[in-house]
Amino acid sequence: MPDCGNLKIPGPSTGSIFVPSRREECGIFGIYGHEDAAKLAYFGLYALQHRGQESAGIAVADGCRIVDYKHMGLVNDVFNEERLKTLRGYISVGHVRYSTTGASLVANAQPFVVFHGNNHYAIAHNGNLVNAVALRQDLERQGAIFRSTMDTEIFMHLLARNLIYGLEEALISALTQVQGAYSLTMCTKDALIGVRDPNGFRPLCLGELNDSYVLASETCALDLIEATYIRDLEPGEVLIIDDNGMRSLFPFPKRRPSYCIFEFIYFARPDSNIFGQNVYMCRKKLGGLLAQENSSIKADLLMPFPDSGNYAALGFAELSHVPLEIGIIRNHYVGRTFIQPSQAMRDFSVRVKLNPVRELLRDKSVILVEDSIIRGTTTRTRIKSLRQAGAKEVHMMVSCPPHRFPCPYGIDFSTKGELIAASHSVEQIRDFIGLDSLNYLSLDGLLEGAGATRDNHPFCLACFDGKYPVQFKEEVRKNCFEGRNRKSA
Length: 489
Known about the structure:
Elements: E1 27-32, H1 37-47, E2 55-61, E3 66-72, H2 75-78, H3 81-85, E4 91-97, E5 112-116, E6 119-129, H4 132-141, H5 151-160, H6 167-177, E7 180-187, E8 192-196, E9 205-209, E10 212-216, H7 219-224, E11 228-232, E12 238-242, E13 245-249, E14 259-260, H8 262-267, E15 273-274, E16 277-278, H9 279-293, E17 301-304, H10 310-320, E18 328-330, H11 343-353, E19 354-356, H12 358-361, E20 365-370, H13 377-388, E21 393-398, H14 420-423, H15 426-433, E22 437-440, H16 443-449, E23 459-460, H17 462-465, H18 474-482
Parallel strand pairs: 14-23, 17-20, 20-21, 21-22
Antiparallel strand pairs: 1-4, 1-10, 2-3, 2-4, 5-6, 6-7, 7-8, 8-12, 9-10, 9-11, 12-13, 15-16, 18-19
Helix pairs in contact: 4-5, 5-6, 9-10, 9-16, 11-13
């Protein structure tokens, strides 16, 4: 047992390698074996801020206990030097979150920390458990008491029920009961754990910083703290890091991977490498393929919607030879509109966030490049502003196929009613948005841009083709397809 009064950092040796609040896309981070674990977690979360802007939290273990702090807001608003000084320890896990069900509450901020059997446990979760409703109901019938609406808390209840058999057995037991998408960073008082679901929906990578080990949703977090990338965790892997080194458990039968391709299209930072590829290069390639598929469209200039369309626009311009201009200027002090919780805020952000360059656009035929159209309301407002700025024609190119099916695995379009392409043809969408023409990248083009083919690929394409790799029960399907009350917790 470490001396709780004098912090000691063991050096790891090299070893073998309700209704719950659901549908989250978050960023997670973990570090083992560093004297300033909390500060490194802060910087790691800062790099992952694009994955969630509603809350941030850090939990730190010192070999005896876990202390944590979390609150609503951005990372640099939640934490300062004084706050970080109170989080002393050599192991840390961190989390940035956005909610999509209206449960934007401190009670649902992560990491989620519990005290059980004279031990502390902290967990940070990215993803969504599709059997959360049934699991929670079963646990409540057995007398379990919940203090949040997170599906993450369900996992901790399942873990606690089997801790008498040891941590590894408890982990395996809990993981075999949950279904869906999850990447986890978890710590005990003296160990760091990383977990990736058997389908590998969400990214999670391993890095090294001197004698410390790092887990992060994306490699951009490793870059910021100058950690060296080692590898991605494999789908279905449970990685345990403690003073004995690293060891990996593989409790699941091997499955065909189902990497979320929307990570490439929208969520991941362009300087990150995920699923074995660089995001920037993938998005640029998608733009080039989009240009190849729509070579007949002519215009005076080409422009992206900043920043989501920037990289596809570069690829489109390179292949089409249409002059690339920055026709809309972004106010960088406004957050990303897609991940804010209410439509009212979303529409307001569109007006505040982007302003067209009137002198550039007046009497011009414009090709506008965007990475996706989800609800259509944001895009409609933007196109209206281009028309008001004097654009003669506006043609839109979208670097992915139409989103026609809701995602139950952790993306913020979890009802079919939210997807304009689920109930409207491309021509109807064009008319609603106010475009002269609208063209999407084909599914084959998307897969080619991601380095795969339709017959041989490792991706989840359910939001495009409705083929769900992990099935879910009718109550989840009903919630996804018929709508939900965004104001309920």
